[in-house]
Each structure stands twice: as C-alpha cells, then as structure tokens.
Amino acid sequence: MNLLKRSFLYLIRKWRISILLLFIIFIVSTLVLSGIAVLNAEEQKTEELKEATGTSFSIERNYGSGGMETDEKGNTYLKSDAITEDMIRKIGNIDGISGYNATVESISCVLKNGKYIPHSENDLVGWDLVDSGTLSITNINSKYSTYFISNIFELVQGEHITQDTKNSIIVSETYAKKNNLKLGDTLTVVNDPENDDPFVDVKIIGIFRVVTDAIDDSDDKKVYDLAAYFEYNDYIFLSNDLSNKLYVNYDDSGNGQYDVVDYYVSNAENLDNIIQEVKNIKDINWKNFNIYTDDKVYQNTKDSIDNSSTLIISLIVIAIIVSVGVISIIVFMSIKGRKREIGILLSIGKSKVVIMFQFIIETMIVALISFASSYFFSKLIAGSLGQAMGKIAESVIIQKEQFIIIAGIGIFILLTIVIISCIPIMKRKPKDILSQME
Amino acid sequence: MSILEIKNLKYEYSRGNPVFKNINVNLDEGKVYAILGYSGSGKTTFLSLLGGLDTPTEGEILFKGENIANYGLAKHRKDNVSFIFQSYNLIDYLTPMENVSIASKLPPKPILEKVGLTNEEIKRNVLKLSGGQQQRVAIARALASEAPILLADEPTGNLDEETAEGIMSILKDCSHKMNKCVVIVTHSKDLAKQTDVVFRLKKGELQVERNK
Amino acid sequence: MNFIKRAYLYTTRKKLKTILLFSIILILSTLLVVCFSINSSSNMANANVRKGLKCGFTVNAKTLKNGLNENIIKQILNIDGITDDYTLRSYTIAEYRDLNNNKLKTKDDVGLKVYEHAGKVVCDNFSEKDTYFTEEGFKLISGEAITPEKKQVALIHEEFAKNNNLNIGDYIVLNTVEGKEISIKVQIIGIFTNTRKADTENYTDTTNLYQNTIFSDLSTASKLNYEQDNENCQYGDFIVEDPLELDNIISQMKNIEGVSWDSCVITKSDSNYENTKESLEGLAKIVSTAIIVIFIISIILIILILNLWTKHRVYEIGVFLSIGIKKADIIWQHITEIFIVAIPAFIFSFVTSSIATKIVESKLISSITNSIEISVNICDWLLVSGIGLIIILIATVISIYQITKIKPRDIFTI
After folding, report:
1. Do A435 and B44 touch (CB under 8 A)?
2. Domain carrying residue B82
3. Do C412 and B127 touch (CB under 8 A)?
4. I need a surface site. Which of A400, A419, B151, C339 has the fewest CB within 10 A?
5. A352/A399 Cα distance (integer angstroms)
6. How many domains does chain B have?
C-alpha cells in the first residue's frame, strides 16, 4: 500500500479529526484572508482620510512682477502674466492631483425669459441692475471650489460643473425658490449690460444649499473682498466656458486667464514631490507665479493617522502570527498523538522519511481543501465586513494573486511545522517509540 | 550457515550499566526459539536488537553473514524481520486487509484466511475484532512481508489459553512449514514448552535451557 | 481517589499536554488582550486625529454691552474638552494721530472714503493667530507680534510707517471715530506687510485697506470699545479636543451665567471634521470589526481545540465509567484540570500581553514622530479572562458530556 493511499485512508477513516483539523485550518486561513482584506481596506481608508484633509496648493499670479497699468476708463490692471488654461491643464495632469479649480469672480445680472430676476435679499432698491446682481463665479470643477470643499455649500440637486460642462449654472436653493427655478431651466446671464456685454443663455444643472451655522456674516474678521458684498444665497456658479463668453470686453478677466488655481492632492504625503514636479514643468516662468501650499490639517493629523494605520496593521499582523502559532501547536499535537502508528510503521520497516511524507501529504490535502473553501468563504465574509464598514465594500476584496501568495506561505508554514513536529520522533530510536506507546 | 549470528552482543541503558553482555548465539530457519526471563531482564531489548529497532552498545548481529548495521536497519526491518506484539499494534484506521497490505504487495486475503479469519472479519474495523482475531491479523501482516524471521514479543500475553493455543500453532506452522526463524519472547513456561529451543536471559547472560 | 486528585495527577503527569494547552490558552488570551489594547490605542489615535482637525467655535459677543469679560473667558476655558489654543479678538475703527494730535496720513487714493485718517484696528491676544496673518498672507517684517502680556501696543503696515516716518518704539494715538471721544496712546512694536493684493481695493471702505489696518492688543480695544481698563473682547475663538463633543461643549458654555447668550452669535467651525468624518469612522469600524472577528474566531478555535483534546481521552473516560465513576465526577475532573491550566494562563497573559504591546510599540509605532502609547488595560484583561473562563468551561462540559453519553462498552470499540 503506498503512502498516498494510506494518507487518504487516514483522512477518511479518522474523519472526525480530519474535519476538526480542516475546520481549524479553514478558520485560521479565513481569518488571515479577511485580515488581508481588512488591510486592503485600511490602506484605502487611510488614503481617503489623507485626501479628506484637503491638502492643496495654489498657484497665484505674482502681483509683484510686471506692475500695474491704468486704462482710459481709470481701471487699474495687473501687467504680470496671468495663469493660462494650458498651464492649468498641464499642472492638473500631474499624477497625484485629485482635482483642481480656477475661478473668475465678477458681479453679473441674471434674467429669466428676458426679465431681470431679483436676488435673494429683501431690501431691493428697485433698480434691475442692482437688484438682480449676483456674485458670479466661473469654475473648472465646482466640486473643488473652496465653498464646497470647506462645506459652506452643499450640492443638494443635480451635478457639479466639470471641465466638460458648457453653458451651465448652479444656483442656491433659496434663490431658486424665490424665483421659482428648477433643474433644467434656462436663464440668461450678463456681466454688465451698460458696457455692451453679451447676454448668454445657461441651463441650471445644480442647486446648492448654504449649510447653516457654518458662517457668521457679522464677524468682523471677514476680509473685505468682492464676495463679502453678497449673501451666500446670491452666489452663482458658472461653467468655465462662460468666462470667455461673458467677459469679452475685459482684458484681464476670463478669456483663458486666471489669477489663482487651487490644486487638491490625493495623498498629502506626496505634496512636496508634486510641487517639485510642478516647478520642473518647462515653459512656465516661475518669476510670474507664486505657489502657496496648505497642508495644515494634514500636518496636524498626520502622526495620528499614521498611528491609527500602524495599529490596524499591528492588529492584523499579530492575529496572523498567533494563528500560525495556534496551528503549529495543533499540528504538533496531532502528530504527537500518532506515536503508536509511527512505531508500528517503523517496526514493519517503513522508513522515517516515508512516514513523514505521509503526514505531509495528509496535512497538504487538508490544507488545500481548507484554503480553497476559505477563499470562497472569506469573499463572503469580506463582503459583509465591507458592508459593516460602510462605503468601502469594494475595497474589502482579496486579490487572486494575494490569495495564491497567502496559500503558498500557508503551505510552506504547515510543511515546516509538520517537519518540526516529526523531529522529536525522528530523533528517537524505534524501540523507544514502541516501548513508549505501550 | 545460520540465518542470524549474534556476536559479542552488549547493551547498556547507560554507561557501565549493562543489561546484557557478551551474548553469542546462532539462530536457524525452520526453528521456533523461546526466550524466557523475568520482567526487566532485557528480553524485549534483545528482540529489538534482533529486529533492528535499536543498536547494540557493542558486538554485531549478522543476517546471512552480513552485519545488519551495514545493511541498514530500516531495510533490515523491511526485508528480513517481522514483528508481532503483545498488544497487536494494528493501525486503527485501517481494516485487517489494509493492515496486511501496508507491509507487502501480496494479496492480503489468502494470508488472512490462512491465519483463520473469515471473509467478513477481514473487512471489519480492527478495533471491533477480538484479541485473538487482532493477533491473527498481526501475524498475517508479519507473514505478508515474507521476511524469513518472525520476532514475537509476548504474542499470547493478552489472550486466553484456547486462543493462545491457536496462535502458537500458527507460529509453529510458520516455522516448520514455511521454514521461518521464529523468536518468541515470553515469561510463560507452558508456551516455551512448545518451542524447539529455549533460552533464558538471566543476569545479563543468555543460557540455553533446552535444545530439542 | 477523588476528582481533584485525578485532575492534579493528569495535569502533572501529562506535562507536555498540559504545557500545550496552557500555551494555546495563553496565546489566545494574549491575542485578545492585545487586540483590546490596540483598540483603545486606536480610539485614542482617532481622537488625536479629531483633535488635530482643530474644530471649534466662535463666540461673537459684539452686541453685548461690555463684550466678554475675563471671568467669562476663564469659565469657558475651564469647560472640559476645550483646549488652550484660543484667540480673543476685538475690532474698532480709529483715527490715527501723532503725539502732537496731528492726523496721520493714510492711503486714500482708492476705495470709498467714509472716515479719513482712519483705519480698521484689529485687536488680538495673539496677532500671529489672526486670520490676516494665517490666511490673508500678512507677514511681520520687523519687531514683535502681539501677545497677551503686551498692553497699549500696535503693529503698523510698512507703507503707513513709511508715509508717516514711523519706527518701532514710536508712539501714535488712536482716537474713536463714533460716539464718545476716547483716545489711547500706543507704542509701535512691529511692522507688517501684505504678500497678496486685496481684490476689492476699488469697492471697499478706505478703513479696510491693508495699508490702513493696525493691529493692537485687547486692553486697547476694551478702552476704545467699552471705555474700560480691562481686556473685555468682542470675539472668542475656541478649539475643542474632540469635534464629537462640540455641541455638548457649546451647550455647557451656554449654561455659564452672566452672559446673555441669546444675543451672541455662536458659529461652529467643524468643516475639517465633516470632511474627514466618513474616513475616520470607517477606520474605527475596521478596527472594531477586526476585533469582533478575531474574538469570535478565537472562541471557535478554543472550542475546537478543547473538543480535539477530549477526543483523545475517550479511552480513559471509558475506563472510569466502567469502574463506576459517575459522569458528573468525570466532568468535574475535566473542569478542574482545565481550570488548573487556564487560570494560570489567564493570569500570565497579563504579563505576555504587556510584553507584546511593548513590542508593538517599540517595533512598529515608535517610528512615527508623535507615537501613541499602547498599554494593557486591567479591565480589558479581566473581561477577556472572565469570558474566556466561561467559554472554556462550557466547551469542556459539552465535549465531555458528549463522550459520557456513550455506553461504557462502546468506548472500547471506538
């Protein structure tokens, strides 16, 4: 009878022990695989968290270079180079940048069906151009507008403006309610009708809500900029193409020129590298632009995030080590319990190596079945773990390659354990084994 | 030439504490030998040495003129000797058929029938057989290996008189009809009476008590 | 021979088995204790992340007659969970004069003129924490920043200094522009500049121009705003340890007497927390889920192992049954045995888990700059040991009971 058959017979006849061992290995390997899945999820969550710190940098036109010029109407203009759309795109294409936005702010009037519609404030002066004035902000990606990033506004209907959005507008809920507007309605926007500026038709693609409590308009810390003169409810977000259509009569606003671009970085750790890469872009004269970074929140939380992440890794690593330890003890125990059999096999002239091979084959058969079933089971577990952990279900997945590696390591460990467990028996003289078992 | 020649055999558990020393004896095929002795006299140890389960402190054991240490102990156990134990030592997860076939490629059924097991018994769980039946399986396993030497350690120690008688006659048949060398370690004088040669292990020496 | 003696003999004679069982219980209980320690450390790390988000609230007490007084501020700072990282602010508009009562020159070529020779006076306990410096790109180019112990001092814009030929150490006079005329002499201790341009120079009041802005301290503000010789202020910005406690802390603050909180505007600043909330909760959930899974698996493991353990003793149990020892007595023997092994294992697990957590701390965590401490909590340890003992007890009783249900005769043929 060859050893393969003997192994099979052992596993089948001693089915209680086999099933127990199978179950234990199955549970441990499920634990390990779920652990790996958790690590995958952890990695993604940590990355998300780092991204959520809103680490960003902005490129600003350098006001110091180039000086100012005054036109015939008495308006002053900056002479230094403005940021171009080409430059914005080039920087935005750098790996690790999750999103960016550039805006042009102006005061624009809004019309519906050819009539000026009033803004949300109640103290109207009765002059259409003032009463329908809004703070108009053109956006490349409105999702990355500071107002949305810092949770002052929240998009409640429709969608955000992206690079591909054309002739679109996002208005506030209050503004929409006051003027009876809904998604899909067409409005007309004009910058300054008294300056012969063009009227452009736009479609409402989104409605935002001002998140209350987030702001105190009466706080004197407010720095007086254009935005400060308008109620948040009277902000309108316009798609970027409109800056070229609305501001044709002005040299420095829109028309593919920007003063500031904000870039958001997906992994704050890479901020320095990304900035370096930005600075390496040829054909940008950095004398004309300044880079400001904002990773304050990341710096404040970095160590704690790392601590938290390392703790999770430690947890899983410890669980895996312990599992291996427990499996070792069990295999060791089960081989020790088979001393009698070893003695008999030795007495009929089976060599120690053959006996060891039998144990190895048995263990391998059990292990392979356990691994295979734990692969499918841990997929189930990972699925429910993922659900338990919220939106990250997709990330709690074990890759096939990972499974193969884990199974390989598992088999190697079991092999080592079987061999080590056999050593005390192998070192003994057959006679001692026989006399001990009686 | 004797099949087993034991020369100057000495064995000690620890240094200067010999169990026996200077044993010289030749064992032949076709004979049944009994080794008598009190508990602790070293009977089982002697048997282990013959079967290659242990190595002597001094001296050598020759199988057909070749030192078994040179031949290889595992190979010696596999090819030349078969053991029969007092506690049968059957593998509990194998049937009688399978227990026999782990030792040999010969078809196990005729051998099992030869030692007196029925067709039904040879497929039963070994632990559900009686002691006599289990010992028959153990003998069948020993025979299946076709080794010329059978080493039995108290083979009837756990059995009633009648059953023991049956086992002894099988062992005698093995020796006389199949021309095997059978060595039985026992403390039973009744059993020893039925053998061809009786040795006594006493104070570390092997004395011939009776030679037919 | 009673069961206790038998149990004692089994555990001492079968040393290897005892040691193995001891090790398994020790390893698993250590694992669980370490898991719980990691859980509390990880909660702490999460709390630190939340702390690092620097969420807080602003009290706008501009409408109160005398603002927020020092006593109120002290009471707010005494609320549990409020950090020492706070700023107090007041604002006013003042006319700038020299010591000879001559009006100083301010920038007035752009913007809307409401008050001449005047500007916005921003008063802080820490000027460096002011939004002008932290967000609007102001930079101190010489002198010192304003700190709480400085009184009747000012920081002026580079351009204003140049136009009026003012230097550090010089004095100027700030004069109210509305209501009762109050004036105060302040010493210039620093000069700042702006690194970015304001985009509203053409629309804004001239007093808001960067060049006309002056930073001063709270005592100056109190004098100008309330004509008082204290440090009452209009605004307080407070940061809380844990954004989760923000609402609670605000309501605690509102219980402080002596302030008409309804007239104040309280604004929460927790957008950082709102942004990271989901990921943070996700991480916390990962830890708690992992621990629950490990806990359950450990329990299953120990049950399986104990089952495997007793399987080997069918023979022995059969013998006992055959000689007439009662089932209950046999179960008691096993319970005694398992307790002899398990209790020392649980006790010892306190030591091993302390060592294990120290190893995790020194090998893994210590590479992080502000690393967190992990230590074994006695309550966690007691919990693990208690639950562990109960589970082991139940598992032993069940598996032995299963065996004793078999007829003594059958035991020999299993």
Report:
1. yes
2. 28-54+73-211
3. yes
4. A400
5. 39
6. 1
Query: ipTM value of the model?
Result: 0.75
Rounded Cα gap, residues A333 and C20, in angstroms: 8
On whether residue B61 sits in a domain, the answer given is no
| C339, HSE (Cβ side, Cα atoms, 13 Å) | 15
> Which pLDDT value is given to residue A247?
86
Indicate the pTM of the whole model: 0.72
Interface test with B, best of A12, A18, A347, A438 (most B CBs within 10 A): A347
Q: pLDDT digits over B125-142, tens only?
A: 887 888 888 888 888 888
> CA of B91: which chain A residue's CA is closest?
A341
Q: Is residue B199 part of a domain?
A: yes
Nearest to C267 among A20, A41, A215 (CB): A215
| Domain limits, chain A | 3-48+302-437, 54-294
Interface of A with B (CB under 8 A): 1, 6, 9-10, 13-14, 340-341, 343-352, 429-432, 434-435, 438
Mean pLDDT of A307-313: 84
pLDDT exceeds cutoff 60 at A389:
no
A 309-328 near C (Cβ less than 8 A): 309-316, 318-319, 322, 325-326
Per the CB < 8 A criterion, the answer to whether C25 and C341 are in contact is yes
Q: Tell whether B43 is covered by a domain.
A: yes
Residue B175, domain CATH? 3.40.50.300
Cβ distance of B78 and A343 shorter than 8 Å: no
Q: Over the stretch A240-280, which tens digit does the pLDDT of each residue have?
A: 998 888 888 876 666 778 888 999 998 888 899 999 998 88
Chain C residues inside the 8 Å CB shell of A223: 131-132, 136, 198
> Which pLDDT tens digit goes with each residue over C257-271?
888 898 898 988 888
Residue with more model confidence, A44 or C386: C386
Nearest CB among A218, A311, A316 relative to C42 is that of A311
Does B103 map to a domain?
yes
